[in-house]
Structure formats: structure tokens, C-alpha cells
Amino acid sequence: MPTYTSPKVEVRKSGIEGRGVFAKEKIFKGGIVFDFSKGNGKMISNSEMDKLCAEGRDYGIQIGEDLFFAATENSEMEAGDYLNHSCDANLGIRDSLKMIAMRDIEPGEETAFDYAMSETSDYKMDCKCGKPNCRGIITGEDWKRKDLQERYNGYFSDYVAKKISNTHE
Predict the structure, then answer these.
(1) Left if phi > 0, otherwise alpha if psi is -120 to 50, otherwise beta: which for 136?
(2) Max Cα–Cα distance, the chain, nearest Å
(3) Count of domains observed in the chain
(4) What is the mean pLDDT of the chain?
(5) Which of 33, 58, 64, 122 gives the lowest tally of CB atoms within 10 Å of its CB?
(6) In this structure, what DSSP letter does residue 117 have?
(7) In whole angstroms, what is the distance from residue 62 CA to residue 48 CA?
(8) What is the pTM assigned to this prediction?
(9) How many C-alpha atoms does 86 have within 13 Å on its Cβ side?
(10) Nearest Cα to Cα of residue 36 among 113, 125, 143
(11) CA 39 – CA 81 distance, rounded (Å)
(12) Which pLDDT belongs to residue 50?
């Protein structure tokens, strides 16, 4: 069964990285843009995800300490696999695999989420979002930042929200 994809989005060339997902029409705050829980992909380990990333196939979302949901084959690729990172995200996460609008998103705007909302694995990447608040380097430690915890409160994946909660106990 394919991932639920809002009919209000489409994949096209992105200024952030390669291809991205853009709003074709207005998406209102709280609207579900993607629901990966109903989609193609497999549950894989960190080591399996590392292998995919080394091949340039980093189409996954971390949902546990050693667990990713990822497109492992080209036949599993869908529009949601082209979501890019932004330090000024307009999408957040509900549960572990639903991407929802954190604010109204205007037609023509690229939809993107901050990888700090789901990623705690050992990685580092150069950010290309170009936003005024760009962090420059994105890492698997960014979820620990107090400023991001405040900005994205209520929009972290269940996995990361639990890690944050455990650090405040």
C-alpha cells in the first residue's frame, strides 16, 4: 500500500537539495501531508541504514534507538522520500511516521522538516537550507538543543520526545 500523500503536494526541483516536496495549494496548520505508517518501506537497523546512506540512498526516518523506516528499493520510493531538511521547518511529526503542517503552508512553498525532530544517530551533514537561522552543520545531537526543543515542542517523533523527556527527569 502506498504512503498517504496529500493531494496538495508535488515533487519538483529543490533549491535545498536535488528534489523536494512543494505545496500545490494551501495546506492548513495541522493538516497531514504524509503518513508513512501506511506506506512502502521496511523497518531496518542503524547498520542497514548506514549502508543505504553510504550508497547515497538516505531515504529513511529514525523511529527507535536501532530502528529506521526506510525505502530500501527503488520500487519503494514515493513523494515523501524527497522531503528535505530545513532549519526553519514547516512540517513536524505526529506519532513516529506522520508529517503534519506546523503552520499554514502557502502554494509554491517547499515542505521540509528539521531532522532534529527524528534523528539521534551518529551523523553530520552540511545544511543547505539557506534560512536566516541555518545551523550550518546538522548532527544527530541537535535534538538536545534547548532552543530546538522549545521551537518544536509537540512536533518531535515519539522516539525523540521520549528521549527529551528522559533527559529532563
Answers:
(1) left
(2) 44
(3) 1
(4) 91
(5) 122
(6) G
(7) 12
(8) 0.91
(9) 21
(10) 113
(11) 11
(12) 87
d(CA 134, CA 148): 12
Grid coordinates given for 145: 538543543
CATH number at residue 41: 2.170.270.10
Structural domain range at position 160: 4-167
Q: How far apart are CA 143 and CA 163, in angstroms?
A: 9
Contact 89, 33 (CB under 8 A): no
- Cell of residue 147, nine digits: 532552543
Candidates 160, 121, 163, 154; CA nearest to 140 is 121
| Cβ neighbours around 98 below 10 Å, total | 18
pLDDT at 41 over 90: no
The amino acid at residue 20 is G
- Which residues lie below 8 Å from residue 81, measured CB to CB, with a gap of 6+? 59, 71
